[in-house]
């Protein structure tokens, strides 16, 4: 029973780490200026798309030629890089919280099993120790991913 709880917890923590990895991948840097071309299927939507891009917080100026929209993505400034780092740190903290919540739920399962006399007190303590180790490994992995992403974002 304890092994099942530990395995399930480890699987869920691995899922949280994978989610963090995917979440970090959404934050990208732009090493050189690039042009993005948007050509919608419905040409009548061009003005709405242009207006949406212009009103967004992207800080870009779209150019509409009647059939497509061109957007020049400028090089990231140091200020924008720092904003991205703040965003990545927030995502990392969300992932750490998810891992801790997974641990808390597993501990509750163990406590319940101990209370129902399904497992002994020593087994419960050993299981909690194993959960703590799994949690520590997961948090360390998230921290390593965060450090790598910060280094990537600050590279010019």
Describe the structure.
The protein is mainly alpha-helical and 156 residues long. The chain folds into two domains: 2-28 and 77-154, Topoisomerase I, Chain A, domain 4, CATH 1.10.132; 34-73, Gyrase A, domain 2 (2-Layer Sandwich). The chain is 68% helix and 8% strand. It contains four helices and three strands, in the order αβαββαα. The chain has helices at 2-25, 46-55, 78-115, 121-154; strands spanning 34-38, 63-64, 69-73. It has a three-stranded antiparallel sheet, with helices on one face. Strand 2 and strand 3 (69-73) form a beta hairpin. Helix 3 runs antiparallel to helix 4. The mean pLDDT is 88.
Topology:
Layout: H1 2-25, E1 34-38, H2 46-55, E2 63-64, E3 69-73, H3 78-115, H4 121-154
Antiparallel strand pairs: 1-3, 2-3
CATH topology of the largest domain: Topoisomerase I, Chain A, domain 4
Would you state the CATH class of the largest domain?
A: Mainly Alpha
Largest sheet properties: 3 strands, antiparallel
What is the ordering of alpha helices and beta strands? HEHEEHH
Q: Structural class from helices and strands?
A: mainly alpha
Q: From the alpha-carbon coordinates, what is the Rg to the nearest angstrom?
A: 23 Å
What is the number of strand segments? 3
Shape: elongated
Mean pLDDT: 88
Spatial sequence of strands, sheet with the most strands: 1-3-2
- List low-confidence stretches: none
By oligomeric state, this entry counts as single chain
Determine the N-to-C terminus distance: 51 Å
Residue fraction in strands? 5-15%
């Amino acid at each position: 029973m304890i092994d099942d709880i530990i395995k399930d917890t480890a699987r869920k923590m691995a899922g949280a780490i994978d989610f963090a990895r995917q979440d970090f991948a959404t934050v990208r840097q732009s090493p050189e200026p690039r042009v993005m071309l948007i050509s919608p299927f419905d040409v009548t939507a061009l003005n709405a798309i242009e207006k949406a891009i212009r009103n967004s917080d992207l800080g870009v100026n779209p150019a509409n030629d009647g059939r497509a929209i061109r957007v020049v993505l400028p090089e990231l400034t140091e200020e924008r890089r720092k904003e991205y780092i703040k965003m990545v740190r927030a995502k990392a903290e969300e992932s750490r919280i998810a891992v801790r919540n997974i641990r808390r739920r597993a501990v509750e399962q163990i406590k319940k099993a101990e209370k129902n006399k399904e497992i002994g007190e020593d087994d419960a303590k050993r299981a909690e120790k194993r959960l703590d180790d799994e949690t520590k490994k997961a948090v360390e992995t998230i921290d390593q991913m965060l450090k790598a992403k910060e280094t990537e974002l600050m590279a010019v």
